[in-house]
Queue: 3 jobs
Job 1
Amino acid sequence: MENNNNNKAGTAHSPFHQTYFHGTKADLKIGDFITTGISSNFGQNKKAKFIYLTATLDAAIWGAELALGTGCERIYLVEATGAIEDDPNLTDKKFPGNPTKSYRSAHPFKVVGEITVWQGHSPEQVKAMKDGMERAKQMGIEAIED
């Protein structure tokens, strides 16, 4: 059977792109880009060299719940515009094998949607996580590795 498709075998283009989740308190719109250089939500709140995303809703929920600021917790669907890599803050130090499917990139992410219905963690779980982060901070352990 002859293939009339102009694409070479194995190079067919899909109209779909891999999407990821990004939890935050920022109020964004579809089409916006999340970029580096904005104050980080974690650590010493310095200018972020990387943007973080995840392939799991649970990790994105944690990102939204732990983000600094007073805005509404939001979870966006995003597409990477460049290379991504495993998040070294979680992958090798806390969860070998990257079960949280957490990644980072120096390239922008394009907001392509928002998850508007999701169940957050219990107030006790969030408090325990924040207390643990504060203990680590007091011990001089940075939450984000640049």
Job 2
Amino acid sequence: MKGDGAATEQLFLACAADLTRWVSRVVLGSDDAQDIVQDTFVSAFTQLRALKQPESFRGWLRTIALTQIRRRFRKQRLLRRLGFAHAEPVELETLISDDAPPEVVTEVRQVAALLRQLPTDEALALVLRRVEGYRLEEIAEQLDLSLATVKRRLAAAESHFAALRETPS
């Protein structure tokens, strides 16, 4: 039993920093990144015996993290609609280079704000494609969707995003 705890700790130490950076990029620096990573590891360690291919642990963690991200964003969106929570400011400093010109920083902030207005599944597909550079097949696998569904979500996200950019603030 003690060996299991040590192995779990080793897995956490080996993967936590990388997963935190990845989640921070996917959620665009939201303060929720740390909570999402914690929830991901709790879920992963609870389900660890279900992992069929131990060599795919990191990819499996990302899949679990995406589920956690979806849950969190849907909950936040519902709370905002019900008037219980206000949109939180986006903390992007960790993702923007210190050398970035002010106009780039402003544009990144505007893009992040627009992405938060998209439906969760569309925003995730768009970020995985445009920010993380995933191929369509990888997005389908990570989100457990068909390739056709991924293409539809990306097209819808692009369309919604373009419409939001054209809307005066």
Job 3
Amino acid sequence: MANFNPAFKRTLVHEGEYVSDPRDRGGETYKGIARRRHPGWEGWARIDKAKRRRGFPASLRSDAALQAEVGNFYRRTFWEPLQGDALPDQAIAEELFDSAVNMGLTRATEFLQRALNVLNRGGKLYADLVVDGDLGSKTLAALHAYLKKDPAELLLKVLNVLQGAHYIQLMTQSPVQEAFARGWFKRVEIDVA
């Protein structure tokens, strides 16, 4: 079964530190936690206090309580709803977690469901899933059935193709989002081993 800590460490590599970029739809963010999407996160109070002190934003790195709040937020908000501890493959769990953090739980789960549907050998491994963004018992059962017959690497490639296509669609619809292309595409790891 999968472990939260490696998934969290991998995702934080992409999330960076404190940013307040007006082009970012999430607005002010800290380690990927967008204030517009998560205004009630307890870490914002600590960050707002730190803004009034010298050394901001670098000073945030040494705030152990804030770093613990970041980890707790990611575990509660993304890992637990994805049933990360129940996922049977670490690499798949890390991919789903990272996609959920970057694009939302529903979209990450829809990617998994769509990928499992195209890899079910015409329904011979398991019936097509309803693509509803809910990672429930049927999706988990299909994932287990898939992994009994096929390698995780193929599923990871399909997940990354869907992720990359989503980024292209976002940038096509809103060219200002092209500012984030290079960071987004660092998350798309097609050559998994």
